[in-house]
Amino acid sequence: MGLFNLGKKDTYGKQRRIEHRGKHLRASRTGGVALRAQARAAGVNLTANTRRGLRASVTPAKNTQVALQNGRFILRGRYGKGPTKLNLSKSGASLSSRNRLGSFNWFRPNRSSAKVLGIQVRGQKAAQVQLIYMVIAAIVGGVQLLVMAVVGLLRSAVALGQWCVDNARALPRRWRNARLQRQRRGIDPAVSEAIGRLDADQLSAALALAVALWGRGETLDEGWCRVQQRIAQNQGLEALPRSPELFEAVAVELERCRAAVQPAQDAHRIVLALLAEAAAQGMNGERRATLLFDVDDLALARGPRSVLQEQLLEIFADHAQLALEPAMPVETTQEQTGRCRQAPWSPQGPIDLNTASIEQLQEIPHIGPERAAAIAAMRPIQRIEQLEAIDGIGVQRLGEIAAHAQLHDCTKPVENRTDKVG
Fold first, then answer.
1. CA distance linking residue 67 with residue 369, whole number of Å
2. Are residues 222 and 254 in the same domain?
3. Which residues contact 191 (CB under 8 A, 6 or more apart)?
4. Considering the domain boundaries, does residue 138 fall inside one?
5. 315 and 195 share one domain
């Protein structure tokens, strides 16, 4: 199939010009059959052709040829990148564009060329073929451009509509937050100061009580014990403390703050906004996010969330500077989130407090990045009771930590080494 270029394609996927080019023999439809010989001497190319005669040529610059053929002066040049190039000859300059059919000369159309089914056409016929082709190509391109413009407009319209819907849905939430900001300016400064004195565990307990009880229309002095017991029975709520004394004290303080805030119908919302802002200053982003998830789980323990509970959770997320986005498809979120949230509570055996890495220490219940760093700085640890010196670790929390920890000088879990922890 190599003979006459049959089956060979050019860069546009078209059949190459049908011709034969041997070492000394050339044969084509337009050039006929000719014998050809070539030599080079003193930088000059010499070519002898039985049909075209003798030609001597040199290349003074890139893409430029100067020649004498049968005594006639010849100048050829072709410059530029891409489909459109500048042509130079002894008769002047011209501009031509390359396409799938061949080349169209814009200044001298009769010098155009076209190739159809491997047959080369030149001159006026080639110019006519090229014009027809370019008109059709322009129509097709125009239609494609119109389709792209319509699709772009539709996508823009859909995006604009979605933006309007999202902002319309967010308006009540933004209006509520703006109203809370205005109402906060009139409250007693002692309320803000009292909430500002709460540590991370107290803030966590306060948020749990506010959402679980205020969110269902209950007072804290009636239900704080029930909420604390539910948290103590669920080890998956890792961001929430479990001390009854802490919950009792926080319940009393929150009810006192709410009673001092006006208007009374929005007091619980205003207090929760203050709690969220205090959490934004006293907790890192990871703990705030975990706290929000845990409180949401706690709210769902008694059934679907109430409207007020949803509002309180939104207020906490907004004022605690949390922007939550789904990171996985909705149908797998609950299953995978459950696995991720339970993983820290299932370490492979007790973790050595003296040799574990910061990441491994965080697999122990109630041990986050800050407490893990504090444990590492305390090494060597001789007794589990030393952990009580770390902020937020009390006797009850120490017992839960001991169930998952050990020291390098024993093979049994730490909880079996002391009577104080149980």
1. 81
2. yes
3. 257, 260, 261, 271, 274
4. no
5. yes
Q: At residue 173, what is the residue type? A: R
**For the chain, how many structural domains are there in total?**
3
b/e per residue 146-166 (b: at least 16 CB within 10 A): eeeeeeeeeeeeeeeeeeeee
Q: What angle do CA 144, 147, 151 make, to 5 degrees?
A: 140
Closest CA to 180 of 310, 276, 255, 259: 276
Residues spanned by the domain of 81: 3-97
Buried b (16+ CB within 10 A) or exposed e, 108-136: ebebbbbbeebebbbeeebbebbeebeee
Question: Do 204 and 317 share a domain, yes or no?
Answer: yes
What tokens were used for 206? 């306060």
What the block records as the tokens of 99 is 């396409």
* DSSP H or E segment with residue 214: none
69 SS3 class: strand
pLDDT by residue, tens only, the chain of 422 residues: 455 666 677 666 666 667 777 777 878 766 678 888 888 887 888 888 888 888 888 888 888 888 888 878 888 877 877 778 887 777 778 788 888 888 888 888 888 888 877 788 888 888 888 889 889 989 999 999 999 999 999 999 999 999 898 888 878 888 888 888 888 788 889 988 999 999 999 999 999 999 999 999 888 987 899 999 989 888 888 889 989 999 999 999 999 999 999 888 889 899 999 999 999 888 888 888 899 999 999 988 888 989 999 989 999 998 888 875 544 444 444 444 444 444 333 445 788 898 888 888 888 888 888 888 888 888 889 888 898 888 878 887 888 888 888 886 543 444 433 333 33
CATH of the domain at 412: 1.10.150.320
Residue 223 one-letter amino acid: G
